[in-house]
């Protein structure tokens, strides 16, 4: 492999290195993308980058970027330490064995290649694994070793690791090992699960000083050993493909998130109603039943913007059909819901039923749009409709076809699409690795296309809806890859109604936000198992602060609408759903911030307070933006919460009590109380509670003001389409001088509020 460094040359802004050793002319390369983003690349496949996450370079498809401002290579030189590449912010030294070291502009090491021995003997041997497997013990073990493609880098004592997309377990991923292979595993998810539905091969490292990220842009199966094998290093591995990673240097985690989303795209603004409450269940088995749900929501005065139609609405689970027997005339129920202010979202699975005469199957067969076996036969496996075939979404023609097919739903009046089973899931064993798909302009095996199957399906759906409606497409997905946030929101799949999964929801959603997928949520109340009244009450209290707020559960489990748990829990649900509707303009502002800078809506405390040791692994609190801290109860039976508040002055949202931060204390938290704290000087924009978005014209804005000093930027547009990108929006700068509030219009492009009402919060009386 790469042995002693012999020299380098610069070509087209990229630095290539020559080594002693046998590497078949595959010269490794370092490319400066920006002052803080560096690409490290070995083109083992000879096919170049072929990224599915970073699309602006090749296709210019990221709406938020015109194209890359290529970073500047300040200088390249060589001395005895190696080849020294400088940008304004980072120094990279490339040495023997293609060891790449990154330093900040002061010469402090940010990330070094690991040069010591590896501790592979700490891993389980194959024979031990086989022995353990006899009693079924092997599931949580793995053989740790070398991967055909790999990168081993050093860890320092204090380094914490975040991100990695959708993983179980806790916030700090250090000491754990994960894999990236989109997987539908219906068993209750445990902390030691290596894979879930989504694969986002992006990690963030918080150091004692500074931070960095690595996006390992290989969409085949990859491995992330985050210091499990050896305490002082981590291993990134892949079975095939290229060594292709982006090193992102930052002063803090926010810098890293901003750069990662610059590379892979940012979650765009959604329609305002999507931030409302969603009600779902698999399955409301008939039109009558689902109509009863809409009626129930309104009778119980529960704000709600959307009901989801799970697979039962389809005729024999055939996509782009309607079950006329049990769901009668689709258009009618959807338009009746619309009259009640309730939108309809339908589920859409990729598996197309094998059935002669079924138009989607026939069209796909005629055009060769389904994945094939290596022998060229259409590949069949089983999903909900029985025997099914799999659209080849990596083929641009298939994406276009699938996008056009969405017209069926648009014409029915559907408002958004929920993409499920797109890992892809299959009931007769996994798809073999050699099933042939397309990767844009060339055939590619399932092993390469698996992790981007959901991504490509979401992209097809997004593009279809954008074309057909001109509105911001509302797409939800279960499977995705890095960069999918440009096309889709997501949910965490099939959790269970167990307290462990309520607790897990916080780090899981926070890490997804750090990994670019900001608009995400869990099934509130839990999908599998039976929810209890207490668990539902506590879950609603987290759900109402999650970007995607949907109550969903599985067939056969206890009914889970808020009124199924008795009057106390119904009242609690109403209280928190109402709060969600009040907070809509605040959350909408956060969505705007996300499109602008990549900052997630729901944040771990460490994103805001990364010098605070107490929050580096805080799993039971989170922030909504940078002003609201939520400390929910996540323990069964608990009526108190041990709260930690970082440095600064805070106000108890419910009582107005002033608290000096940097302390822990016990807050009483009966079942109807979720402890919430607001930063001193904050201004929180609110709307009055409404049964749904659009019930009135949003012409009253309430500014809830907290003691202290601060400024706030508020954003307003029509909440529906892309006119804002042509300037149809307003922005307001709001100054709070301890209760003296001034509002300045900064950008004018949309109609004004009729009234802006300033409300002093209880903290002013308590002082
Ligand atoms: C999958 C989804 C779940 C859905 C069910 C039936 O399990 O994750 O949300 O309800 O399929 O479509």
TrEMBL record:
GO BP term (any one): carbohydrate metabolic process
SUPFAM superfamilies: (Trans)glycosidases, Galactose mutarotase-like, Glycosyl hydrolase domain
Annotated ranges, domain DUF5110: 701-742
MF annotations from Gene Ontology: carbohydrate binding; hydrolase activity, hydrolyzing O-glycosyl compounds
Span of domain Glycoside hydrolase family 31 TIM barrel: 268-590
InterPro entries: DUF5110, Gal_mutarotase_sf_dom, GH, Glyco_hydro_31_AS, Glyco_hydro_31_C, Glyco_hydro_31_N_dom, Glyco_hydro_31_TIM, Glyco_hydro_b
Superkingdom of this protein's organism: Bacteria
Domain Glycoside hydrolase family 31 N-terminal: 30-225
Alphabetized UniProt keyword annotations: Glycosidase, Hydrolase
Protein name as it appears in the record: DUF5110 domain-containing protein
Lineage: Bacteria, Bacillati, Bacillota, Clostridia, Lachnospirales
């Amino acid at each position: 492999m790469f042995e002693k460094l012999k020299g380098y040359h610069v070509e087209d802004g990229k630095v290539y290195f020559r080594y002693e050793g046998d590497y078949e002319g595959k010269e490794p390369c370092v490319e400066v993308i920006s002052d803080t983003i560096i690409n490290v690349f070995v083109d083992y496949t000879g096919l170049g980058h072929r990224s599915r996450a970073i699309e602006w370079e090749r296709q210019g498809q990221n709406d938020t970027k015109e194209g890359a401002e290529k970073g500047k290579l300040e200088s390249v030189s060589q001395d005895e330490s190696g080849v020294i590449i400088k940008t304004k912010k980072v120094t990279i030294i490339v040495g023997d064995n293609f060891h790449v070291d990154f330093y900040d502009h002061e010469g402090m090491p940010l990330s070094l290649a690991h040069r010591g021995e590896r501790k592979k003997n700490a891993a389980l041997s194959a024979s031990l694994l086989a022995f353990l497997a006899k009693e079924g013990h092997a599931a949580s073990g793995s053989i740790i070793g070398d991967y055909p493609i790999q990168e081993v880098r050093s860890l320092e004592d204090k380094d914490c690791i975040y991100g990695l997309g959708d993983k179980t377990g806790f916030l700090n991923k250090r000491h754990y090992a994960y894999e990236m292979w989109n997987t539908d595993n219906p068993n209750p998810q445990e902390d030691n699960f290596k894979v879930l539905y989504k694969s986002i091969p992006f990690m963030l490292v918080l150091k004692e000083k500074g931070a960095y990220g690595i996006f390992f842009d290989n969409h085949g199966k990859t491995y992330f050993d985050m210091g499990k094998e050896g305490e002082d290093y981590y291993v990134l591995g892949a079975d095939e493909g290229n060594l292709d990673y982006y090193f992102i240097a930052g002063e803090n985690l926010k810098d890293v998130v901003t750069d990662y989303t610059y590379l892979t795209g940012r979650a765009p603004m959604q329609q305002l109603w999507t931030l409302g409450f969603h009600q779902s269940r698999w399955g409301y088995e008939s039109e009558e039943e689902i109509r009863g749900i809409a009626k129930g929501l309104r009778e119980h005065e529960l704000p709600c913007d959307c009901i989801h139609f799970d697979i039962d609405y389809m005729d024999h689970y055939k996509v782009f059909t309607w079950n006329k027997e049990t769901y009668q005339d689709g258009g009618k129920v959807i338009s009746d819901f619309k009259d009640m202010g309730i939108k309809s979202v339908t589920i859409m699975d990729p598996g197309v039923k094998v059935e002669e005469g079924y138009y989607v199957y026939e069209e796909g067969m005629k055009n060769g749009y389904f994945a094939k076996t290596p022998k060229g036969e259409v590949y069949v496996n089983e999903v909900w409709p029985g025997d099914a075939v799999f659209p080849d979404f990596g083929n641009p023609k298939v994406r276009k076809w699938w996008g056009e097919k969405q017209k069926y739903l648009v014409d029915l009046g559907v408002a958004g699409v929920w993409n499920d089973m797109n890992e892809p899931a299959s009931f007769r064993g996994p798809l073999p690795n050699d099933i042939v798909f397309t990767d844009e302009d060339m055939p590619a095996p399932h092993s390469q296309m698996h992790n981007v199957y959901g991504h490509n399906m979401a992209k097809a759906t997004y593009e279809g809806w954008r074309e057909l409606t001109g509105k911001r497409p509302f797409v939800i997905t279960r499977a995705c890859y890095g960069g999918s946030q440009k096309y889709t929101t997501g949910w965490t799949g099939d959790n269970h109604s167990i307290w462990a999964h309520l607790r897990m929801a916080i780090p899981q959603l926070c890490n997804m936000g750090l990994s670019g997928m900001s608009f995400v949520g869990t099934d509130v109340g839990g999908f599998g198992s039976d929810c209890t009244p207490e668990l539902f009450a506590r879950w609603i209290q987290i759900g109402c602060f999650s970007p995607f707020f949907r109550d969903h559960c599985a067939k056969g489990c206890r009914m889970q609408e808020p009124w199924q748990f008795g009057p106390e829990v119904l009242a609690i649900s109403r209280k928190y759903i109402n709060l969600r509707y009040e907070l809509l303009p605040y959350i909408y502002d956060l969505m705007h911030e996300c499109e602008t800078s990549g900052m997630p809506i729901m944040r771990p405390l460490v994103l805001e307070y990364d010098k605070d040791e107490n929050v580096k692994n805080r799993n039971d609190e989170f922030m909504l933006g940078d002003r609201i801290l939520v400390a929910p109860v996540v323990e069964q039976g608990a009526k108190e919460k041990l709260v930690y508040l970082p440095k600064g002055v805070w106000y108890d949202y419910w009582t107005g009590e002033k608290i000096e931060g940097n302390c822990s204390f016990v807050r009483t938290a009966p079942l109807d109380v979720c402890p919430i704290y607001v930063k001193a000087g904050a201004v929180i924009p609110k709307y009055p509670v409404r049964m749904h978005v659009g019930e009135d014209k949003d012409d009253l804005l309430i500014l809830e003001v907290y003691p202290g000093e601060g400024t706030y930027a508020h954003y307003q547009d029509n909440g529906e389409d892309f006119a804002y990108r042509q300037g149809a929006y307003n922005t307001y700068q709001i100054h709070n001088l301890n209760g003296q509030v001034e509002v300045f219009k900064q950008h004018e492009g949309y109609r004004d509020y009729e009234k802006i009402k300033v409300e002093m919060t209880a903290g002013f009386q308590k002082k």
